[in-house]
């Protein structure tokens, strides 16, 4: 286990404030370090619990960041409180702003072709300091071609939106091909490109973003069952402590 990590049902989280985390990432970018960031929510914690290979990949990442209020609540319930939630989307925006300021090379991978194109267009339009070296949609057979493209372009930051666990498997397999900060960002390009709206700020503040997504995308209901199951397991763990 990494030093100071907090164990939530087998997933080991770093306990940083967002400010501390940003400082670390900023230094990593300055040092041109090879880093892997994962941002698990309760659904990912549950799937890691049932999948050793995935669990090892997550726990061996350089940063394991609590995306989702459920993680913070779970940590409180277990008596190991964490500083704060740090969302994958906010981390994506921080990396983009850093890249813009520091004139870094960025590669975008994942989401539907029109979504990744719209995301690339937004970067070219609004973040002119970024050297966007390449982008590719997330619907491909992994025959090594995409990884070869990333290797050839040698970006400083690789943003991967293939959903979990696909994006973590991809990063784990190919992160040695180039020295970059690699992160799995889930559905973030759908929001970044303007294809999907993020919940209004008040809903984010009330920690009801999950409910907003459910109302907007009722097909997520099956995935939402992960939350009560997760809370039940936390209760059980608490009793056994
Ligand atoms: N996706 C992809 N390739 C796939 C499956 C999914 O690029 O084979 C993309 C999908 O288009 C979406 C993202 O991965 O942009 C996953 O979104 P989801 O809402 O599942 O992620 P979450 O934010 O809930 O982790």
- By CATH reckoning, the class of the domain at 31-193 would read Alpha Beta
Q: Please tell me the overall pLDDT.
A: 95
Order of helices and strands: EEHEHHEHHEHEHEHEHHHHH
What is the first-to-last residue Cα distance? 19 Å
Write up this protein.
Helices cover 51% and strands 14% of the residues. It is an alpha/beta fold. It has a domain at 31-193: 3-Layer(aba) Sandwich (Rossmann fold), CATH 3.40.50. The strands form 2 sheets. A 6-stranded parallel sheet has the order 4-3-8-7-5-6, sandwiched between helices. A two-stranded antiparallel sheet has the order 1-2. Helix 1 (18-30) runs parallel beside helix 5 (88-102). The mean pLDDT is 95. It binds uridine-5'-diphosphate. Residues 110-112, 138-139, 161-164, 166, 186-187, 189-190 line the site of uridine-5'-diphosphate (UDP). InterPro entries: TagA_TarA, WecG_TagA_CpsF. GO terms for molecular function: N-acetylglucosaminyldiphosphoundecaprenol N-acetyl-beta-D-mannosaminyltransferase activity. Belongs to the glycosyltransferase 26 family. TagA/TarA subfamily. One of its GO terms (biological process) is teichoic acid biosynthetic process.
């Amino acid at each position: 286990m990494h030093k100071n990590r907090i164990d939530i049902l087998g997933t080991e989280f770093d306990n940083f404030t967002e400010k501390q985390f940003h400082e670390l990432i900023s230094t990593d970018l300055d040092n041109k370090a090879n880093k892997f960031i994962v941002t698990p929510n309760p659904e990912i914690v549950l799937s890691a619990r049932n999948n050793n290979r995935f669990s090892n990949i997550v726990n061996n990442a350089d940063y394991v960041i609590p995306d989702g209020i459920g993680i913070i609540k779970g940590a409180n319930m277990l008596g190991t409180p964490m500083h704060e939630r740090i969302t994958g989307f906010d981390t994506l925006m921080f990396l983009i702003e850093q890249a813009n300021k520091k004139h870094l090379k960025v590669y975008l991978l994942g989401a539907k072709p029109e979504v990744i194109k719209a995301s690339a267009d937004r970067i070219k339009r609004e973040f002119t300091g970024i050297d966007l070296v390449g982008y590719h949609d997330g619907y491909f057979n992994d025959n090594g071609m995409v990884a070869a493209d990333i290797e050839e372009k040698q970006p400083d930051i690789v943003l991967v939106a293939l959903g979990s666990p696909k994006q973590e498997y991809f990063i784990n397999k190919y992160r040695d091909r180039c020295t970059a900060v690699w992160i799995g960002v889930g559905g973030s390009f759908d929001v970044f490109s303007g294809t999907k709206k993020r919940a209004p700020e008040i809903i984010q503040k009330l920690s009801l973003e999950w409910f907003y997504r459910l109302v907007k995308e009722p097909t997520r209901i099956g995935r939402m069952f992960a939350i009560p199951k997760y809370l039940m397991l936390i209760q059980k763990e608490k009793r056994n402590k």
